[in-house]
Amino acid sequence: MLSLKLLLFQLIAITIFCVGFFPSKNVLQGSGEFNFEKELQLTTKPVFTKLVFVVIDALRSDFLYEEQNSHFHFVHRVLNSGEAWGFTAFSNPPTVTLPRLKGITTGSTPNFLDAILNVAEDDVSSSLKDQDSWLMQFYKHNKNIRFFGDDTWLKLFPLNIFSEYEGTNSFFVSDFEQVDLNVTRHLEKQFKEKEQWDVLILHYLGLDHIGHKGGSQSKFMKGKHEEMDSILEDIYNSIGDTEDTLLCVMGDHGMNNGGNHGGSSSGETSAGLTMISKKFKKLAKPKDQINTVLPIKWNENLTEEEKDYKFLSFVQQVDFVPTLSALFNLPMPINSVGVLIPELLRLLDPKLTRTKLKENFSQLTELSKSLTTRNIYNAIDFQNDTIEDIISQMQSVQSELMKSATNYNMNAIYIAIILLSIVTLIIIHKAFSNYKFNILPVAVSLIIGLSSFASSFIEEEHQIWWWLITGMCAFSLVYNSDSKFSNFIVFLCLRLIRGWNNSGQKYYYPFALSSLLKLKYVNYQWYLNTSTILYFMFKGSMNNFPSFMSSFLLANLCLMYKVSWAIVNQEHVPDTIKHYVLVLCTHLMSARNVAPLQLFESTLIPLARLFFCCVVILLSLTLVIGKLSPTRLGNPVSNIKKIIIFLLIFQTSPENIGLYLLFGILETNLTDIIDKHYSGNTQLITTISLVMQYFTFYQFGNTNSIATIDLTNAYNGVSEDYNIYFVGWMMSISNYAPAIYWSMFPWIIDDNKQKWKKFIERKNIILLFNCISGLFLLITCTILRYHLFIWSVFSPKLCYYMMWNIFMNVIIGWILETLVTYVM
Question: Protein transport: present as a keyword of the record (predicted)?
Answer without folding.
Answer: no
